[in-house]
Amino acid sequence: MRVAGLPPLSKLGEFGLIRYLGGRFGRTSASVLCGIGDDAAIVQPLSHRELLVTTDLLVEGIHFQSGTASFADIGYKAAVANLSDIAAMGGSPDYILVSLAIPPQRTTQNIDQLYHGLMEACRREKVDLIGGDTSASHQALFIGVTLIGSAKPGHALRRTGARAGDLLYVSGTLGDSLAGLSLIENQRGRGDAKLPREHRRYLVGRHLRPTPRLRLGRILSSTKVATSAIDISDGLGGDLSRLCEASAVGAEIDQGAIPCSAACRAYAALSHIDPIQLALRGGEDYELLFTVAPRHARKVKQLARQAKCPVTCVGVVKPKAHGIQIRQRTGILKPLNVQSYEHFQNTKRPAKHR
Length: 354
Ligand code: ADP
Ligand code: MG
What we know:
Order of helices and strands: HEEEHEHEEEHHHEHEHHEHEEE
Bound molecules: adenosine-5'-diphosphate, magnesium ion
Oligomer: single chain
């Protein structure tokens, strides 16, 4: 919902903006003893919980382009990037802090919409906005989001727990977000115009409004069925290699098992690309990659049904010396060529996905 007649930022000023944002988005639950407005927020910690704390910085021109997404979508995804980190730890998100550096071309309306999207993603999980920081910026919009969550002591899922012999699972489908981004960027380019409208809508939606897999993460941690987990924000290839490195293991994944949606496959066919490449390289799917001891193979399917989130076994954890390999559809094993975005190295690719 747009708010008509908001005063310009120059008139509102930093403190006027903070007051406005606090009044409109800062409503909090009883555990927040002091929210926006003092030097620090005061929260009553939940007893018998461990705190999970995560932060993410989004930079205009690197992580998002204001021309291809609305400010509400940008805000929504900024929240999801953090919610997904809490999901991957198997926790529940509780409090959010949002820091902004705002360039002169942005309006109060833009910032209002940004918070609208942010809090839309948070409301579903009853996350309270308890603070942030505000600055001017010369050119780009910077959005720093910090999320505080909690987990049952000793239950948080880490990247370090995978053991050789464990099965590798992913939630949902992979590659949709990159397909959606390509559709947004190439409006009517190449064969995309032939893509059925419902497929286009689905893929663009998966890019702009991804789903953090909180329920699945929580169920995997509370039952101790997963031995490790990571969220897929940089493509299956990149995040699998990070999980393997943290756990000091190798892996073998099966190309034919990687779940791709019908929409992603249709898009890939029309664009003459392999959907598996979208799944391996495409970031921002925000699905979970996790490992499970083989004795829990049946249990994990049952838990996934309970969490209303499909999961697929895509391979198996191997000893470290094995490296990370992918079994081609022909049956031949090949080392997995990991291509994911790295800041400072991908200087020729201005946006995170290119
Ligand atoms: P300080 O000078 O101590 O950093 P500020 O004036 O920056 O205090 O902040 C005052 C209050 O407003 C604090 O509660 C802070 O957390 C909150 N706040 C500042 N900027 C934002 C923002 N962009 N979003 C939400 N809360 C904010
Ligand atoms: Mg401040």
